[in-house]
Amino acid sequence: MAQNPRTSETDTTPNADRNSGLSRRSYVRSLAAVATAATTLGATGTTAAEDDSEESSATGKGDFEVIEAAGQTITIGDGETWENKLIDMTTGQDIVITAHSSDWTIRNIGFKGENTSGTGSATFGISDTGGGTCTVENVYLGDGSSTGNGNPNGHGQTAFWVAPDHSGHIDFTNVNIQGFADNAIYGSAPGNKGGGTIHIDSCFAANCYVSHFRLATAGSKVTNSSVYVDNEGYAGRGIWAWSPGTIEVEGCQIEMNGNHTAIDAGANGQGTNVVLRDTDYDEQAGIAEHAGSTVELEGDTGTAPEAVIPSGTPTSAEEAAAGDN
Predict the structure, then answer these.
(1) Is 14 inside a domain boundary?
(2) Three-state SS at 89
(3) Do the Cβ atoms of 175 and 206 come closer than 8 Å?
(4) In a domain, 21, yes or no
(5) CA 26 to centroid of chain Cα atoms
(6) Alpha helices in the chain (DSSP H)
(7) Distance CA 207, CA 184 (A)
């Protein structure tokens, strides 16, 4: 049985203590049937976004570059587009992509193989620090990470970490994250400082630890997305809302199979508000309201979730890198 995380994480970096010995299995659902289905502190080497390719391949709609993970950090600057990359994680080493600038785009990126580096990094450390709008779309991180953690903060690898200084807006669209040992999208830190917003749309997250979608600021929301947790992977919260809120959740499927909490509102003694609209959530996992938090149920909200991979969301690293979906 998957273990649940503690509930005392702080919000500036992925936090201390972790589980161990968990097995994991990629387990996702397509629209029709079951299918087979992070900024940190320890990466070495820094590379400009345009100088990172090792080789190129062609498939489907477009070419993509293959980058071998080798402990490097790739930095994306103001107005840059970083796209059509296949990241080879079978090297056993880490790679970190940082974008702490404005009006950048990350598109058509696939990670092939489990991250077994054990660094405890965030694969993507991002923020819009100039009040602009940034985009993350068509990204596959479905091969997950191992349980190792060389970082004193956090529980292991995080997929996306949004920094406290985020003051603009980030759109996540068609992102597939599975089996990460820390949060899938850790987007609550701007609630402490920058106040920037995040919109997660048509995304899929499964079997990640701590939480799958974690948000804090007013105007941030999750729409048309699914969370899936079974009994053989990491078992984090479905959606974790932090102060100040309000966080909107609309048109989502939160299928937890009785694990942890479907919608968790509030943390560290501070309450928030969540509006749950036209969404199905796991009644057994349920809703938790802490420190005066409220979760309002609106529209056609029910308790018969069926998590799906939203249309257009990649199901393999190659598909994402080529933009083939």
Answers:
(1) no
(2) helix
(3) no
(4) no
(5) 15
(6) 317-322
(7) 9
